[in-house]
């Protein structure tokens, strides 16, 4: 009788759950997200968690997996929202064409900002992305005829969506949530495919050691630009969904505070973890929703929670859970 290999025995059992989580991460994430409307205090909160979770997923692709800290991703979130709203309000396009306009517009803007910013490194990269994002903010503020200026873009409402031969009433928050989940599934599948590809291995190599990755013959600048554009596309998708959800695009979607939301949610959940951005979005928005009922200074509570998380959970909430599981 053949004896099992002694080399395979140590550590084989702990590796199995990690392999299962990696292989089935998209279905497991979607299964968890399906439960949100029924366990959160309100359906509207669940919709916001889903939208901002997609936003954080896009940001995590650049920050968590490529190692580039951007302070300007509000530009792509806002560009997607404004392009979608303008397509409906000014040109009368159907919702699906408006969503495509929003995603493409955010991708083009990401290509321009990325081409200008990836020439810098470290804190200089962060400051350049912040400055360029603020340029987009002030451009939207001045383009009053198209964007509504400081009043935001109004005058468009999508009450029903024709999807796969079905007419869905998205005024109902439950219907709206599961329609948005279709886009969330597409975004998660795309990110999973990217991470499983050779390109995903290259961006992680750049995160770990950019000099060594360049020495191995990889075109680091082009890889970072592609990662930047892909991140902008996903963040633009979140912006388009936000516009359809609210039927208004406030100017604050382009403000640097919105960029800060992506950073906080990603760090809270766990940068570089697949499901971490949704955990971060859930915790942040849930604490905001509950704390705002107690005090108008809820930002102090959220800020304190963020500081404690950075100090004691440097890998984020979900990243820490995965780390504990791996140690066991």
Looking at this protein, list some descriptive labels.
328 residues, mainly alpha, two-stranded antiparallel ribbon
List the helices and strands and how they pair.
Elements: H1 12-23, H2 25-34, H3 36-39, H4 43-63, H5 74-89, H6 95-117, H7 122-142, H8 144-147, E1 160-163, E2 166-169, H9 173-196, H10 198-208, H11 210-215, H12 220-246, H13 256-269, H14 276-294, H15 298-312, H16 316-327
Antiparallel strand pairs: 1-2
Helix pairs in contact: 2-9, 4-9, 4-12, 4-13, 4-14, 5-6, 5-12, 6-7, 6-12, 9-10, 9-12, 10-12, 13-14, 13-16, 14-15
Identify the strand order in the major beta sheet. Answer: 1-2
Alpha carbon gap, first and last residue: 32 Å
Largest sheet: 2 strands, antiparallel
Output the structural class.
mainly alpha
**Unreliable stretches covering 5 or more consecutive residues:** 1-15
Count of separate DSSP helical elements = 16
Pattern of helices and strands: HHHHHHHHEEHHHHHHHH
Helix content: over 70%
